[in-house]
Amino acid sequence: MTASYLVKILLIEDNLAEARLLQEFLKQAQSKEFTLVHVKRLQEALQEIRKDTYDVILLDLTLPDSQGLSSLPPLMINAPSIPIVVLTNTNDEELAIEAVRQGAQDYLVKRQVNTDVLVRSVHYAIERKQVLETLRTVNQSLQSRVDERTAELVKANELNQFKSEFVSMLSHDIRNPLNTILLAAGLLQNNDDKLTKEKKHTHLQMIRSAIKNMAQMLDEVSLIGRADSGKLSCQFSPLNLEAFCRQLVEEAQLNVKEKHLTLVFASFGELTEAVWDESLLRHILGNLLGNAIKYSLPGGQVQFQLIAQEHSVIFQIQDWGIGIPQNDQKQLFQPFHRAENVGTTPGTGLGLAIVKKCVDAYGGKITVNSEVSFGTTFTVTLPLIKS
Ligand code: ADP
């Protein structure tokens, strides 16, 4: 502190003579300028600190409206950053020490006060309080930095866990088709002259479908990646929605026939002209239809309904297959999540995650209604965007 620094003191002292004496001491101080406001009661002091700022409070512990240490808490609550120096008589030094323990910066025994003692005490009280305040803010910012960092680490950890799950699933799911390819290619190479034309055809077919599987999986993974980095945007163009749905049904027929299923498509309502993102629609409906077929029991039925409304279109895909346990329904849209009842039905657990991301990108809604052994209905509502 320099001599030009003006120290504002609030003196709380009911004894006029004592107050005047302290004022005199301060006047004699050479190094600093002090201004002192004198009040006689705690209530007055509280009013004072509300309307003005002070550098230090000198507090007598025997006041008409407050006795002993009970003066400290109201002052410390109302002015937490102003240092307090307690004034005591010779006989209550213990009380003064207790006051320091409770948060006062210093104490002065009245009989022993002189200019030097008073100035030094005020000076140290202010400095100590400033150091404490700085420590408190440093501590606070350290604490919030620690909190932030902890949150970051938790997130990074979750992300790492997700990534390693992703990698292990991916390598597992890629190894299967790769093995198939290696096996079929090996058979073709080593038994070229022994194999019938039909056998060769079967092996080549196996290779083709394994490659198709891998390509699809890579597409799915990259789609999820794009969606996660916010790069999945809609590209609208005019589309005959009903014809598009019929085409999807047509494409699914091969799998439907293999399982002896019936796939029924029906369209309701008047479809007004609108624009659609064909690629997102294909991901959404293709996956839902594929699942309905995959998780149906042989000989069952799958229904695909298109319901046109004024401002939206509802797609409903219903099957009477294995159903989804209640417990799994909550995590259905998480990548890699597969329900406990899938048995040996193949799958990656990525389809529904993609469906959800595409529906979200569209600003639509998806709900599921399912019961184990009874079947499943997925309902997707997408907004109608007029061209
Ligand atoms: P998967 O590749 O395993 O089919 P999805 O992400 O498409 O992955 O689906 C996640 C899980 O949801 C599936 O593994 C299955 O347990 C369940 N599921 C999805 N659709 C159906 C359905 N129509 N019937 C029964 N279970 C389903």
UniProtKB/TrEMBL annotation:
Q: Where is the Response regulatory domain?
A: 8-125
**CDD domains named among the record's database cross-references:** HATPase, HisKA
Per the record, what are the reactions this protein catalyses?
A: ATP + protein L-histidine = ADP + protein N-phospho-L-histidine
Domain named Histidine kinase: residues: 169-386
Q: Which residues form a coiled coil?
A: none
Please list the residues that carry the modification 4-aspartylphosphate: 60
* UniProt-listed SUPFAM superfamilies: ATPase domain of HSP90 chaperone/DNA topoisomerase II/histidine kinase (SSF55874), CheY-like (SSF52172), Homodimeric domain of signal transducing histidine kinase (SSF47384)
Kindly list the GO molecular function terms attached to this UniProt entry: phosphorelay sensor kinase activity
Enzyme nomenclature, EC number: 2.7.13.3
> Hey, what's the signal peptide range on this chain?
none
Gene3D superfamilies noted in UniProt: 1.10.287.130, 3.40.50.2300, Histidine kinase-like ATPase, C-terminal domain
Which InterPro entries does the record cross-reference, listed alphabetically?
CheY-like_superfamily (IPR011006), HATPase_C_sf (IPR036890), HATPase_dom (IPR003594), His_kinase_dom (IPR005467), HisK_dim/P_dom (IPR003661), HisK_dim/P_sf (IPR036097), Sig_transdc_His_kin-like_C (IPR004358), Sig_transdc_resp-reg_receiver (IPR001789)
Main function:
Photoreceptor which exists in two forms that are reversibly interconvertible by light: the R form that absorbs maximally in the red region of the spectrum and the FR form that absorbs maximally in the far-red region.
> What is the protein's given name?
histidine kinase
